[in-house]
Structure formats: C-alpha cells, structure tokens
Design brief:
Layout lengths: L2 H46 L3 H16 L4 H13 L5 H27 L2 H7 E5 L9 E5 L10 H4 L1 H4 L4 E5 L5 H11 L5 E4 L4 H9 L3 E4 L10 E6 L2 E6 L1 H9 L2 E9 L6 E5 L11 H18 L27
Parallel strand pairs: 1-9, 2-5, 2-8, 3-4, 3-5
Antiparallel strand pairs: 6-7, 8-9
Helix pairs in contact: 1-4, 2-4
C-alpha cells in the first residue's frame, strides 16, 4: 500500500470519527435541553404549591442575588434610570435599582401561580378594579404597561365566565425556546384567552376588537423600527410602536390604560382599568403615541421600582445616534 493510500484512509477514518463525535455531542445537547426544560416546568409546579409568603421570600432572595452580581442587565437598568431620571443622585438610583430587582425576583416566582395556578389562586393573588363596564362588549383596547405584574392580566380570562366578560386576546412575542413558546401560550390560554402571534396577524386582532372581545396590547417596548415612531419618553426620543393608535383608528375602539401593580400592603396585585383615554382620537398616530407615553410616565412616577427597567428601551436611536447600551456589552 502506498503512502498516499494510507494517508487517504487515515483522513477518511478521522473524518468519520469527527462526524460521530459531532452527532454524539448534538444528541447530548438535545437530551440535556429536554431535561432542563422539563425540570424547569417541574420547578414551577413545585413553586406554585408553596405558601405565598414562602414563595415571595424566595423571589426577594433571587432579586437580592441578581442585584448584587455584575451583569449586562444591571448595566441596562443603570443606563435606563440615568436617562429617565437624570436628576436622581447615585445613591437613590442604586437603591431604586436594587428595589426593582427585588420586585422582579418576586414577580418571577409568582409566574408559577399565574401560569399554573387555579382560578381560585389567581383570584386571591389579583384583584380587578375597572372604571368601565367590561360586560358591555364595546370595542375596547386595554393598554397593558410593562410593570412587574404585567402577566397578572390573565385574571381577566380566569374570571371571564364567572363575571360574564368577553374573552381576552392579545399579541404575543415569540420566545427563543420553541418548548417554552408553546408551553406559555398554553398556560396563558388555559381559561379561554387567545394569544395571537404579532407577526402578520393584525387582521385577526381587528376581528377580535370588532367582535367585542377585550384586546390587550403592551406597546411600551422597543419592537423594532417597523410601524414605529420616535416620540418622547421621559424626555428621550424613543422608538415606540404606533399599534394602539392605528387599531383604534381602524376599529373605533375605546383605549383604556391597564396596570397590574402591587397593592399598598404588598399582599397581592391590583389590576386597574382606567376610563377611556379620550385624547387619542386624532388621526395623527405619532401625536397619539406621544400622548400615550405621557400617560405611561405618569404611572411610572407613582411606582418607579415596579417598571421593567431591564428592557433595552432605547436601543434603536434616531439620526444615527449611538446605542446607549453598546458600552455595557
């Protein structure tokens, strides 16, 4: 056998060995991923069975740890607070950051009840206070702000049959994990709610509005430049979707602000639905979106620690301005 033939055989054997190793590695990753996914669901189920005081103590503990570990998200919170509250001294800003993490940790473990709990558990956790009659089936958009209790909006679905409320529908943003994407959709819809993929399904939402169902939209997040405008948010030009204004214009729907925030004694959450915001009837979607941001600012100032400061709210910038989060990477 020539040296060339021997070298070729060795190369072939090496290639086969590498392929087998790659297949084994991928298989191991899939097994580990499946185990981690099901272990996470089991952990959520276990948390949902704990006494509520024990549960929130665990959440506060997780928040304390997160607040004191250097991370990208800690940098994001610091940047957001500096942009939105430039007059806040460093000591107060740091206290606000830590308090936010504590409440975020609490809300994280409370998702075990929100996603897996019974109607009774949810009723004990969240109280609904509405300034409009939810039974009259008027076309209505509920603008759900990104407070730490945002997932508590599920209470409207949980109580719909008992209170004779229409079903709730809303856009959802796809998650990176297909497993949890399907799980969370199922958990959110378990009382009859309707989660609609926000990618290309505007007609489905319009149909739901015109049928008198409650539509929940959370527009206070940077979802990209499509169908968005730069409008002020705490004095900073901020990329904001115009979805609420456009849907209200097309359907004639009332627009009500919805906030799910901690009760004064922090024993649970209060889901409040405001009277219709009558100054959003203009056809100027940019102006309407700017007015909506001002409503958000007013609510956030009342309870700044509960707002989702972990989001990169200012990542898209006008006029080629630098991304304020670039330095935090």
């Amino acid at each position: 056998m020539t040296l060339e033939c021997l070298a070729a055989q060795q190369k072939k054997c090496w290639s086969v060995t590498q392929n087998q190793s790659s297949v084994t590695s991928q298989s191991n990753k899939l097994v580990f991923s499946a185990f981690a996914n099901h272990a996470s669901v089991a952990c959520l189920k276990l948390l949902s069975l704990l006494p509520y005081r024990v549960l929130i103590s665990i959440g506060y503990g997780l928040g304390y740890i997160a607040a004191n570990i250097p991370s990208d998200r800690n940098c994001v919170i610091k940047i957001n607070l500096k942009l939105c509250f430039p007059d806040l001294c460093e000591i107060k800003a740091n206290l606000l950051r830590k308090r936010h993490w504590h409440l975020l940790g609490r809300s994280l473990v409370e998702k075990s009840i929100i996603w897996l709990g019974s109607e009774k558990q949810l009723s004990q956790l969240i109280e609904v206070q509405s300034s409009v009659d939810l039974t009259n089936r008027k076309p209505r958009i509920l603008v759900n702000m990104h407070f730490t209790g945002i997932e508590g909006a599920i209470i409207l679905s949980a109580l719909a049959k008992q209170m004779n409320w229409p079903r709730t529908s809303g856009f959802f943003q796809r998650m990176k994990s297909p497993f949890f994407n399907q799980k969370i959709i199922g958990w959110r819809n378990r009382f009859g709610g309707n989660s609609i993929d926000r990618q290309g399904n505007t007609k489905a939402i319009i149909r739901e509005i015109r049928n008198g169902n409650l539509i929940i939209i959370a527009p206070d997040i940077d979802l990209g430049l499509k169908d968005s405008e730069f409008v002020p948010f705490f004095g900073v030009q901020t990329n904001t979707v115009t979805t609420v204004s456009r849907l209200a214009s097309i359907t004639g729907a009332e627009v009500c602000l919805m906030t799910t925030t901690l009760k004064d004694d922090e024993s649970g959450y209060l889901c409040k639905i405001s009277e219709p915001l009558n100054d959003l009837s203009s056809e100027d979607h940019k102006a309407n979106t700017a007015r909506l941001n001002r409503y958000f600012e007013d609510e956030i100032r009342l309870r700044p620690a509960e707002y989702y400061w972990v989001h990169k709210r200012f990542k898209n910038r006008p006029n080629h301005e630098a991304n304020p989060y670039s330095a935090s990477k």
